[in-house]
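Below is how a single chain appears once it has passed through the pipeline. First comes the sequence as given, then the structure the pipeline wrote out for it. We keep one example in the README because the format questions we get most often are answered faster by looking than by reading.
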Amino acid sequence: MGNATNDTKKTNWLKATKAQFKRIIWPTKEDIAKQSVVVVAVSVFLGVVIAALDRVLLLLADLIISL
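Resulting structure:
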């Protein structure tokens, strides 16, 4: 008796999940490529900025220590 209720709940859940997947708007390959380029470019830019800040702060720390 309880088993039939679980089966019905599982079936309803699977149907609802399938309906939600049909509503998804998947990105095109071009959109994914553009977004990937932006992510890589921003990551490289931030890496350069962080490296430059690290270098400047290291030089300032060395200057302060040498006084």
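Helices lie at 2-23, 29-66.

See the next section for the split statistics.
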